[in-house]
From TrEMBL:
Species this protein is from: Probosciger aterrimus
Protein name: LOXH1 protein
Pfam families in alphabetical order: PLAT
Ranges where the PLAT domain occurs: 1-105
Domain of life of the native organism: Eukaryota
Entry-linked InterPro entries: Inner_ear_hair_cell_LOXHD, PLAT/LH2_dom, PLAT/LH2_dom_sf
PROSITE patterns reported for this sequence: PLAT
Length: 178
C-alpha cells in the first residue's frame, strides 16, 4: 500500500524562480505511482537555474491515497545536471506526521562539490577500520586532554575513569583530540 491513486503535484524552485504547482499527469508507465516503481514525467518550464528545493504532494483523494515517496530526481536538459531530493517518508494523513505534502531540499553533488569523492573516502576508511569494531574486541581511546584511557568493553561496559595506563592487554588504540 505504498503507492497512490491520488493526483500528485510538484513545484520546483530554482535561483531564477519556480514552476508553480504542476500536476504529474503522464508517466512513461501505464499505471503511475505504484509501489516499487520509478515513474518518469516531462514537466515543461522556463530554465530556473540551479535548483534548490521542491514541494511535492497529492490531493488526498481516492481510496488508499497514502504514498511512500523514496526520492525525486530532476534531470535538467539545459545543463545536463541531475538534482536529487531525498524523501523516504509517507505522504499520508494516517501515517508518519499526517502530511500529504513535503518540502524537499536538494541533496546531490551539484550542490555539494566533492561529495562523491568524500563518500568514496569514507567507504575506504570504513573498509580498512571496521575489523576493530567486531564483537569481542575492547577499544581504548586515549584522551590527550586528561592523559587517560576510555575503554569500551565487549560486554558493553564503558570505563571512562581515565586511567593513565593500559590495563586491558590486547586492545586497539584510537586517539581522541579534545
Amino acid at each position: 500500500n505504498a503507492g497512490t491513486e491520488a493526483d500528485v503535484y510538484i513545484s520546483v524552485y530554482g535561483e531564477r524562480g519556480d514552476t508553480g504547482s504542476r500536476q504529474l499527469l503522464r508517466s512513461q508507465k501505464s499505471k503511475k505511482f505504484l509501489k516499487g516503481q520509478t515513474d518518469i514525467f516531462a514537466v515543461e518550464a522556463v530554465h530556473l537555474g540551479h535548483l534548490y528545493k521542491i514541494v511535492i504532494g497529492h490531493n488526498g483523494l481516492g481510496s488508499g491515497n497514502g504514498w511512500f515517496l523514496d526520492k525525486v530526481v530532476i534531470k535538467d536538459p539545459t545543463t545536463d545536471l541531475d538534482y536529487t531530493f531525498l524523501c523516504h517518508r509517507w505522504l499520508d494523513q494516517g501515517q508518519d506526521d499526517g502530511s500529504i505534502a513535503r518540502e524537499l531540499i536538494v541533496t546531490d553533488a551539484s550542490t555539494f562539490p566533492g561529495r562523491q569523492e568524500l563518500e568514496l573516502k569514507r567507504e575506504e576508511t570504513w573498509a580498512a577500520e571496521k575489523w576493530k569494531f567486531q564483537r569481542g574486541n575492547t577499544l581504548q581511546f586515549y584522551n590527550r586532554l586528561t592523559c587517560g584511557f576510555i575503554c569500551l568493553s565487549p560486554d558493553s561496559r564503558v570505563d571512562a575513569l581515565g586511567d593513565k595506563k593500559n590495563k586491558y592487554g590486547k586492545v586497539f588504540f584510537m586517539w581522541m583530540c579534545a
